[in-house]
Amino acid sequence: MILAWIGAVLIGLSLGLLGSGGSILTVPILVYLVGEPEKLAIAESLAIVGLISLAAALPYARKGLVDFRNVLWFGVPGMAGTYLGAFLSQFVSGALQLALFAFVMLLAARSMARPPRLEATPRAPRPYWKIALDGLGVGVLTGLVGVGGGFLIVPALVLLGGLPMHQAIGTSLVVIALKSAAGFYKYALLLPAQGYAMHWELIGLFSLLGFAGSLLGGRLALRVPQASLRRGFAGFLVAMGALILVRNLPDLL
């Protein structure tokens, strides 16, 4: 469990340093270090990442760095999509969910290694109905495999929503918290019928340790070269994603 507690701090550290990556670490830690079943780990990861994101969003909100119009157009459809993804999870196996999760890890690694050119020439604002569709799609992914989607949301808010970077991060944290709450609520309704019970003490402890890690990560972010950090984290994600695929391949076959 000591390794699991260290992992909980690393979850928050990732959110503080990179603004994303928390759920990418949470699910493997819960499955391989704590020993949680796949479906339960995905549900609990939504609660943990949602609570950490909500706490981390408060300083941004106090500084006026949360765009609530984009929260409405991106976050509310995202909540609906997350609820739908959680509903669909009952029709797929835990092994398939982890395999999809591993695929998302590889996508995240590519995004980390080669982040989008957020400083590119400004383009015309994206129609709100398209932003809503983007939120819905990311939400379905969140509910199905348990990723908050920060590595997708922040670039979408900058490039498609036209937000400055700091405002996009603050807005993203609120969106992640809302989507995670919707997905966790649906899992809390579904899992008891499948024989699972939430471990609330684990959720609370991981959330507290993760929040502490996020505070540390926020301080370190000012001193660590972001490009090198992202490339190193991308390499870790590739290795972890490949390991998860290999371990779940026999069950899938």
UniProtKB/TrEMBL annotation:
Assigned keywords, A-Z: Cell membrane, Membrane, Transmembrane, Transmembrane helix
Annotated InterPro entries: TM_pro_TauE-like (IPR002781), TSUP/Inactive_protease-like (IPR051598)
Superkingdom, taxonomy of origin: Bacteria
Primary location group: membrane
CC per GO annotation: plasma membrane
Membrane topology of the entry: Multi-pass membrane protein
Transmembrane region(s): 6-33, 40-61, 81-108, 136-163, 169-190, 202-222, 228-246
Family from the record: Belongs to the 4-toluene sulfonate uptake permease (TSUP) (TC 2.A.102) family.
Protein name: Probable membrane transporter protein
Organism of origin: Marinithermus hydrothermalis (strain DSM 14884 / JCM 11576 / T1)
